[in-house]
Each structure stands twice: as structure tokens, then as C-alpha cells.
Specification:
Oligomer: single chain
Distance between the termini: 42 Å
Helix content: 25-40%
Shape: globular
Number of helices: 12
Radius of gyration: 22 Å
Structural class: alpha/beta
Number of strands: 19
């Protein structure tokens, strides 16, 4: 029996009394992935990206482990909810226009001490001040650096379109604008190199593309390391007591951790290891989060139909954004239908071994987005479910 076949047998036994659709997290794989992130971080703390987990119980589990410290959140409403729930170090990774949230933040000393907001434009300070509604608490601010690699005088750009702050002078100028403004304090810098951390460099069947990605990423790492260090020096001329410099992501942990200027690493997807993280030479994780759909039809030889399945991930549309049939091995989508809103045909000789009611296990393309489809995660240890915990959605929290 292959390792994957053994996993399928375990998962089927563990969930035998549960009707599908159902989602699980294999705790042995989750913990092993956490250990691997810590190893790669080389002693620097890892801030957990909550958007890649979206389950309070699992955030608590990983933050209880040595090597992890703090949360990187994705909306202000989520940040406040986490802070009210007892998490005392929450970095909001994206600027917000949530006026009600800012009014709450600036009126509550506990929330203001726990939550750091992201800016890359002084106009965002204006919005926060206009939303204060009398709240006088000092707002902790993090400045975001654009990590994109610019070539040919800026005519070629590689990287996500995030912050407009690219040069040390630009970031330092915004730091001065914050320093001049009562009610705000710069405490950190963040730079997420998504073109390195979030792009696989070993795409199956595409050796030339893979080599091009590796060359691009090597150049991007060198350029960013020099620029990030210069940015930190420039900002420290303005902010002497800077608390943290955050960088990285699951796919670049060890590279980013090697930079002296970086004090902490962000990562989250590496805990669940969705399918988009199969194509990396720098690490190999264990799939920890899966969902199962039930076989409800057998339309013909070599075909079964499962209920549901149309759970695409965000990003540029493409086949790589679809969940992948994982267990049993050997199933594939019908190219004329793909994963459907309410049913999904699956093809392959192994389909003839599946009976009505059997489970087919899938891996989502991305990590936390799976939790927007399920209210609960069943935590599996060995061949048993040892706990069932709510996702954000299961707690009635749908932030985006």
C-alpha cells in the first residue's frame, strides 16, 4: 500500500460516521509542517498569516509552539475580533477603509495596544483621523514596502501591485509624515515578496519556465535584500525604536530569514500545504487540509459523480486555481465540465472501484480559502477524529 493509499484508509476510517461534504486537518501533518517552517526560519519568529488558516483553534495551536509569535490578519474587523478574543499581537497586512473599525480601535486602549494597522499613503491617516469619533488612542502603524523587481528602467515590473513605496526615500518620507502626526506611531515595516514566496519554481512538465522562474527569483532576492536593508536604515533615522521588520512567506522563509534587516517572517499556507505549494524546490510539505465529497452517481464505465466541488481559489483564472482530486489516486476532471457548482464528474479507471456514498478526497488550490466553504474542521490524529472545531465561517465571521 502506498503512503497516499494508507492516508486515504486512515481518513475514511476517521470520518466513517461523518457524511460528506466534510473537511479535515491531519494534525500530524500540520505539526510537521509547523516544525519545518521553524527550521527554515533559523531562529527568527514566524508571524502566522491568519488568512491561510481561518480557524481560531488552529491559530491557537500553532502559536503555542516555540518559534511562532503574533498574527498577520487580513481585515480590520478580523483584527479587532482576534484582539477581543485574546490575541495580543495582530498585524493587519492590508490598508483598511473600515471607518467603524477605526472608531472602535481608537476608543479602546486594549485594542489599540494589540493591533497594528498598515499604511502606504498619508491619505490613509486622514481617513483614520476622520473616523476616530472622539477616540484618542495612539494608532500603531506599519509601513509597507513595494517588493516588485523593476527592470529596464521600470518598464518591466515583476511582483504584486501593492504599496506605492518602492525606494528608501519614499518609505522614510511617509515615516516622517506619521512622526509629525499626533495620535500615530510607526512600529514596523512589512515587505511581502509574493513573486518569490508565492510562485513555484518547479512546475511539472515545464522545465524552461521553471528555470526562468528560478533565475528571476534569484535576481529578485538579491535586489530586495539590498533595498530592504537600505529602507530599514532610512526609517531607523526617523524611528529609533522600530519594533519589527516583517518579510517573506511560505515559499521564501529561509531566504528572507537570512537577511539581517528582517526580524520576523510571515507564513501561513505552509501549515496546510495546498496544491499551489507542490511546485517548490526549496521545501516539501505534507498536505494537511483536505475535503471530501460523496459519490452520488455512477454515470458509466470509468466515471463517478460527486456532490459539489466548485471551489475555485482566488487569483488569475486557470486550471491551477482548481481543487485537485487527491484520494484515491487516478481521478481527473472531465475537461468539458470541470468542478461544478452542485456536482462534479470524475474520470479514470479507479472510478469503477468507487461505490455510492464513498468519499473522494480533494486538496484546495490555496490554504485558508477552503474554510470559507465549511463551518467546521475535523481534526484527525491517526485514524480517529479527536476534535471538531469551527472555522471563521462556523463562528459567523465572514470578513471578505
Amino acid at each position: 500500500m502506498t503512503a497516499r493509499a494508507a492516508d486515504r484508509a486512515r481518513y475514511d476510517r476517521a470520518t466513517a460516521q461523518l457524511d460528506a461534504p466534510v473537511a479535515i486537518v491531519d494534525l500530524a501533518a500540520f505539526d510537521a509542517n509547523a516544525d519545518d517552517l521553524v527550521r527554515r526560519a533559523g531562529g527568527k519568529p514566524i508571524r502566522v498569516a491568519s488568512k491561510s488558516v481561518r480557524c481560531r483553534a488552529l491559530l491557537e495551536r500553532v502559536l503555542a509552539r516555540e518559534g511562532f509569535a503574533g498574527i498577520m490578519s487580513f481585515t480590520l474587523a478580523e483584527s479587532l475580533w482576534l484582539a477581543r478574543s485574546g490575541f495580543d499581537d495582530v498585524l493587519l497586512a492590508y490598508p483598511s477603509a473600515d471607518r467603524a473599525g477605526y472608531a472602535e480601535l481608537t476608543a479602546d486602549p486594549k485594542l489599540a495596544a494589540a493591533v497594528t494597522v498598515m499604511i502606504d499613503d498619508p491619505a490613509q491617516l486622514d481617513l483614520i483621523d476622520a473616523a476616530r469619533a472622539g477616540g484618542s488612542e495612539v494608532v500603531r502603524v506599519c509601513l509597507e514596502l513595494d517588493t516588485a523587481l523593476k527592470l529596464l528602467g521600470g518598464r518591466v515590473r515583476i511582483g504584486a501591485r501593492r504599496s506605492p513605496l518602492h525606494s528608501p526615500a519614499q518609505v522614510a518620507e511617509v515615516a516622517r509624515a506619521v512622526a509629525r502626526r499626533p495620535g500615530f506611531k510607526v512600529v514596523g515595516i512589512m515587505a511581502y515578496e509574493g513573486h518569490v514566496a508565492g510562485v513555484g519554481d518547479a512546475v511539472a512538465g515545464r522545465p524552461l519556465r521553471s528555470r526562468a522562474v528560478r533565475l528571476m527569483q534569484a535576481a529578485a532576492r538579491r535586489e530586495l535584500a539590498e533595498r530592504r536593508a537600505a529602507v530599514v536604515r532610512a526609517v531607523r533615522e526617523v524611528v529609533r525604536d522600530l519594533e519589527f521588520v516583517n518579510g517573506g512567506g511560505t515559499g521564501s522563509v529561509q531566504h528572507t530569514a537570512a537577511e539581517d534587516a528582517v526580524t520576523e517572517i510571515a507564513a501561513g499556507s505552509g501549515l496546510y500545504v495546498p496544491r499551489l505549494f507542490d511546485n517548490y524546490t526549496s521545501f516539501t510539505g505534507r498536505p494537511a487540509a483536505l475535503f471530501a465529497l460523496p459519490v452520488v452517481r455512477r454515470p458509466g464505465v470509468g466515471v463517478v459523480t460527486v456532490l459539489g466541488g466548485g471551489y475555485p481559489a482566488s487569483g488569475a483564472p486557470g486550471a491551477d486555481r482548481l481543487p485537485v482530486p487527491y484520494l484515491p489516486e487516478g481521478l481527473r476532471y472531465d475537461p468539458q465540465e470541470g468542478p461544478g457548482e452542485v456536482q462534479t464528474p470524475l474520470l479514470g479507471p479507479v472510478a469503477d472501484d468507487l461505490l455510492i456514498g464513498d468519499k473522494v478526497w480533494f486538496r484546495h488550490a490555496k490554504a485558508g480559502e477552503l474554510c470559507e466553504r465549511f463551518d467546521t474542521l475535523h481534526l484527525v490524529e491517526g485514524d480517529a477524529v479527536t476534535a471538531t472545531v469551527p472555522t471563521y465561517r462556523g463562528e459567523g465571521q465572514t470578513f471578505l
